[in-house]
Amino acid sequence: MAIDKIYFYLTWLLLGAGLAITTGLYLFNIFIILFLLYRLVSDRLVLGKNNRSFILSFVGLIAIPQLLSLLYQVLQYSFFTSYSVYIVINLTILTSYIFFFNNIRLDLNKINHYFILFIFSAPIIISVIMYFIPSIGVFFDMSQHPGRFGGVWGKDVNQLGYYATLVIIFSCFLLYYKKIKLFFAVSFILLSLFAILISGMRTGLFLLVLLLPVMTVVYKDPLINLNQLFKFCLILVGVGLIVYFLDYSLFSIVIERFDVYRLISDISGASNNGQIGNMYSKWLTSFAANSNLLDILFSFNYEWKFPDSLIIFYLANGGLLGAFFLLIFIKIVFLLIKNNNFNYILVFIALFSILVSIKGNFIFNNIGMFIFAYMIHSYDKFNNEEV
User: Fold this and answer.
1) Tens digits of per-residue pLDDT, 309-356?
2) Is the distance from CB of 188 to CB of 121 less than 8 angstroms?
3) Count of CB atoms within 10 A of residue 357's CB?
4) What pLDDT does residue 44 have?
5) Which of 79, 91, 159, 367 shows the smallest number of beta carbons within 10 Å?
6) Pick from 6-20, 100-114, 261-275: least confident
7) Is the Cα dihedral 72, 74, 24, 190 positive or negative?
């Protein structure tokens, strides 16, 4: 339908524009809600069986326990912050994405994915241009983090790094299903790798370096085969050489920042910058010091609102009871994936989401949830015709 095609492309345009209403909420989110209201009034909303199971699971096992924790915070301490409802709000946003893709009536094989990827990558393109022409950032008053670069996100360098990681994943996905040609995919992968290096955001890139080779060995028909994986490594080395010749001082920073030994030291807490290991150590100390059984069950440290780890964040707000229901939810997701024969896309997104939660709250990144929801919805609808 024409109206569906207009809504579909405009949604991607608004996503690429990145017009934020407030932190974590964008104009394209409102646009999706308007579409769902239109579909509800004009016809009806539909939802696939697996999607229904998934939504019911996280409503019962994630949203409701989190709301109970919020209620406990209010009754026990007469205080809560917006972070207390962070998880519930993001699950609501994810639900809107699932409904949107289930109710957009289009043949996804006929969608222009060159245009989609280009629009999605626009913030990366602009950020790289800003890096080489700093006056642009000065003109728009976008101050940058010293030693690291955030592009259109200013000092929020991790946003640039994670967004670039999503562009790499989405490019590989579209290339695998032959929706774009190799040259187009490689161009955006190169651009995104450079963006990751200048941002200094390690988590996404290290996870790709970890997951892609392992899953290439395990799966007969992986997203990236051994030959492509080798080329990916050559591209990574090539980007490193480009950085070396363009800006040696940046190259030195990148080498230090992305050093594997340093990452291990940071995780263990052995280095001076061991924020990951120290963060978990601090959390364990705080947990052990709290003797209030109700706090431990429902919200053992409600004031610790936004640590740099979703695992700590979740336990701090939801307590052991919330953690218990989270484990049940993870088991249900595992069964859903098992029922789909451990499809590569589903397994990759699940593993990436779990691992990225160890260091950061990126699993609830608004744009990331949209991209992953689209990949999950479309993978079995894509054919393998040549572009």
Assistant:
1) 777 777 777 888 888 998 999 999 999 899 988 999 999 999 999 888
2) yes
3) 18
4) 85
5) 79
6) 261-275
7) negative
| C-alpha to C-alpha distance for 106 and 4, rounded to whole angstroms | 7
CA pseudo-torsion sign 188, 128, 160, 137: negative
Which residue, chain included where needed, has tokens 């919805």?
377
Phi, psi (rounded to 5 degrees) for 382: -75, 135
**Contacts of the segment 44-52: beta carbons below 8 A, 24+ positions apart:** 45/99, 45/102, 45/103, 46/102, 46/103, 47/98, 47/99, 47/102, 48/102, 50/336, 50/339, 50/340, 51/98, 51/102
Domain ranges of the chain: 110-258
Three-state secondary structure readout of the chain = CHHHHHHHHHHHHHHHHCCEEECCEEHHHHHHHHHHHHHHHHCCCCCCHHHHHHHHHHHHHHHHHHHHHHHHHHHHHCCCCHHHHHHHHHHHHHHHHHHHHHHCCCCHHHCCHHHHHHHHHHHHHHHHHHHHCCHHHHHCCCCCCCCCCCHHHCCCHHHHHHHHHHHHHHHHHHHHCCCCCHHHHHHHHHHHHHHHHHHCCCHHHHHHHHHHHHHHHHCCCCCCCHHHHHHHHHHHHHHHHHHHHHCHHHHHHHHHHCCHHHHHHHHHCCCCCCHHHHHHHHHHHHHHHCCCHHHHHHCCCCCCCCCCCHHHHHHHHHHHHHHHHHHHHHHHHHHHHHHCCCCHHHHHHHHHHHHHCCCCCHHHCHHHHHHHHHHHHHCCCCCCCCC
User: 10 CB contacts (<8 Å, ≥6 apart)?
Assistant: 31
Q: Which two three-digit tokens encode residue 122?
A: 């626009």
Mean of the per-residue pLDDT values of the chain: 83
Beta carbons within 10 angstroms of residue 235's beta carbon: 14
Q: Say how far apart CA 187 and CA 373 lie, in whole Å.
A: 24
317 within 8 A of 65, measured Cβ to Cβ: no
Lowest pLDDT segment from 15-24, 34-43, 237-246? 237-246
Is residue 8 scored above 90 in pLDDT?
Answer: yes
Tens digit of each residue's pLDDT (9 = 90 or more) over 100-158: 999 998 989 889 999 999 999 999 999 999 888 888 876 666 666 677 788 888 888 88
